[in-house]
Amino acid sequence: MDYRDYQHLRFERRERGVVLVTINRPEVLNATNDRLHWELTQVWLTLDADETARVAVVTGAGRAFSAGGDLDMVEANSRDPKRLARTVREASDLVYNMINTDKPIISAINGVAVGAGLVVALLADISIISETARFTDGHTKLGVVAGDHAAILWPLLCGMAKAKYYLLTSDFIDGREAERIGLVSLCVPADQVLPKALEVGDRLARGAQQAIRWTKRSLNNWLRQAGPIFDQSIALEMLTFMDEDVREGLAAIREKRPPAFPSGR
To answer: Euclidean distance between the first and final Cα of the chain, in Å?
Structure first.
């Protein structure tokens, strides 16, 4: 993939090899449709192959980082097993491609983050969030297993007790609480999120590149060790897409009401 091939990601080259990547579907709060979901798996390969790129800074256009999966895409997944096979591959590629990209990734979490967008936001090597931003894993609220990154990442970041609480309840977390429990690197006022991310990106771009990249590679072995946990969570998530609970979860989100899951009645 060449940068020009991307439809929903915008790229800006800055000084010293910092590449600003903007998730660019602001009209739908940067929700991921099929194309964007796939692009988020590929962009790390493109950046890794770009010899002039040293650091990626990722943010969202407008007032959201990324508001989760497009509901039409989610509904299609719940009705078509062949689509689920592709989703398994893409969910895996998104996580492992971010882990295996040697160049540092910084997320500037400017607003709500859910779904694949939340994967990018939290799996970034350095995550900087607005005090007013909120996020949720949200899977159990939809009626599916928390499978797209949380099982591999959250226990390492914030400990098992907090991970279980937030992943089982799908409660929202704001920027201050996310920093307090260790889910993000830094929390700053809203108007400082992107400037701070770019400042950190510039510092890393000026640093010893091999030392920084190999430090990231070494630390990410903690995540590679958890690979089997992650792989099972994706498989179980796809199984729950075939359950009747997910249809109620979708209806509840569309109708802006609490779900009444058949399995919980």
So the answer is: 48
Q: What pTM value is reported for the model?
A: 0.95
Q: What is the pLDDT of residue 113?
A: 97
Q: What backbone phi and psi angles, to 5 degrees, belong to 165?
A: -60, -55
DSSP for residue 32: B
Contact of 252 with 69, CB cutoff 8 Å: no
Q: Are 54 and 18 in contact (CB under 8 A)?
A: yes
Q: Report d(CA 146, CA 217) in Å as an integer.
A: 25
> What number of residues does the chain have?
265
* Strands lying side by side in the sheet with 105-109: 9-13, 18-23, 55-60, 105-109, 126-130, 186-188
Q: Which of 17, 97, 99, 8 is nearest to 57 (CA)?
A: 17
Q: What is the pLDDT of residues 150-172, one digit of tens each?
A: 999 999 999 999 999 999 999 99
DSSP 3-state assignment of 146? coil
**Widest Cα–Cα separation across the chain:** 58
What tens digit of pLDDT does each residue of 216-225 get? 999 999 999 9
Residue whose pair of structure tokens reads 């309840």 in the numeric block: 169
* Helix axis angle, 81-100 to 34-49, nearest 10°: 30
Q: Hey, what domains does the chain have and what are their CATH numbers? A: 3-191+208-216 (3.90.226.10)
pLDDT, tens only, 102-117: 999 999 999 999 999 9
